[in-house]
Amino acid sequence: MKKQPPAAAQDKPSGIAYLIGRIDHVLSRRLRDSLGLLGMTAAQYTALSVLDTQQQLSNAQLAERSMISPQSANEMVKAMEARGWIERQADANHGRIIHLRLSAEGSALLRQGDAAVAELERAMLAELGPDQRGELHAQLRLLLRSLSAIVL
């Protein structure tokens, strides 16, 4: 028969949330440093990646998928448009809807960002084998799904 830990020990966190928080903090700093060398922020890289995947989005859709507020997305879109990374185009059926898409310059910058992020991931995962990497990816997706389902 397995001995149960005292009630107080069962109420203590395992430390996983802390470790994930620390990983997030260090990874964010490394992303900021790597992408900063290319002249872009992590949020801009995320937005360019989302636009590349989705082809065209509204400002509100971009904000949601980039995990930033609509106000922040609006400012970021203005800055990226001014740099020539994205283009705006009015919807053919509804003039008030503006679609955003990558420009050729934005696409080239995204490729550079992808290379920088891939290098960072390679360094972060260097001590894991291919099977371990696949399992980690699957477990992280499971954690995200479980955490997203929690209603407080």
UniProtKB/TrEMBL annotation:
Coiled coil: none annotated. Transmembrane segments: none annotated. GO terms for molecular function: DNA-binding transcription factor activity. One of its GO terms (biological process) is response to stress. Residues 13-148 form the HTH marR-type domain. It comes from the Bacteria. InterPro entries: HTH_MarR-typ, MarR/SlyA-like, WH-like_DNA-bd_sf, WH_DNA-bd_sf. PROSITE patterns: HTH_MARR_2. This is MarR family transcriptional regulator. It comes from Duganella vulcania.
